[in-house]
Amino acid sequence: MSIGHTLLGLLESGPRHGYDLKRAFDEKFGHDRPLHYGQVYSTMSRLLKNGLVEVDGIEAGGGPERKRYAITEAGITDVERWLATPEKPEPYLQSTLYTKVVLALLTHRDAADVLDTQRAEHLRSMRILTDRKRRGDLADQLICDHALFHLEADLRWLELTAARLEKLREAVTR
Amino acid sequence: MTPPPGSLLAAENLRKAYGPTTALDGAEFSIHPGEMVAVMGPSGSGKSTLLHCLAGIVTPDSGSITYDGRELSAMNDAQRSALRRSEFGFVFQFGQLVPELTCVENVALPLRLNGTSRKEAERAALAWMERLEVDDLRGKRPGEVSGGQGQRVAVARALVTGPRVLFADEPTGALDSLNGERVMELLTEAARSAGAAVVLVTHEARVAAYSDREIVVRDGKSRDMERIV
Fold it and tell me: What is the pTM of this model?
């Protein structure tokens, strides 16, 4: 997730202090990983330097944490561009698993074991998410659903690979 | 392999062939009271045959199945039927509700077959229909309700006799994601509150994620992932 773009987006509804930004971020997006204050201030410094935010006011007695930030026109355009750009699908898991499967076949190990172990690990994560979804509110449910569908997609690839192991063995050991 | 101590239902070294086709080739299984175990595997792997053997619907060619310490193969047909009626509940991919009966009559049917009076059976049926959030369908016939509602009626029917084991074979297989999810949430909740163990056959990971653990069936052989990982 782009923290910079998310903080910028939160500023679109009106100027906020760094502390308010952190609180809003944690409430809406930081269920598992709340932001550190340091992350907020370093991100805001960068956005300030790039002209995407400006200091709207500084409260009396304030250090840097008392600054109030407002989004600039350039910042709004940046958020708009970010929202309009699709995320790159992450092929890492498949690549790593594929490597493991092929390596298992090449070394005459049981490649189905590799896939079974991975399925069990995926299902373990899916159980945790399903449980969290059951206890959570709608926001939790949607966040968990997103993760669940991704894990499910991995598992579909895994099942397909499991069904083609013999053919793959023939292909890689030829 | 000896079944783990305290198993309610356990199978060892099950073999079953249909003509030249081997469906089960030494499959193992065990489930504890109140536990939910997913049986996963690709189509044709033998998972439904395993469920049918465990439920006493199909007799394996060899191997042992014990329910609550009793060997299924030592029972005659009448005893196995009695076991299925009183101790087991069933939900299949398609609800298999009786189309001529109303939903409440469908849910009450297993109790009626066991000799319970109509009034008492329908009272118990309605209580289960409330838990499955389908009590408003009491007077409707299966043809008048949606697929998701029909499956919830089928779950209520499966649980109305207070079974100790619920067998669910692809219970959401014919439903869309949202309806499938609701059926699984309600099925899990209802089975857990009733203390029923659930044998859940599914090829869908999202459905299996409601279980406590999974076994994988491939080419008639089973793998208990909890014992491996």
Answer: 0.80
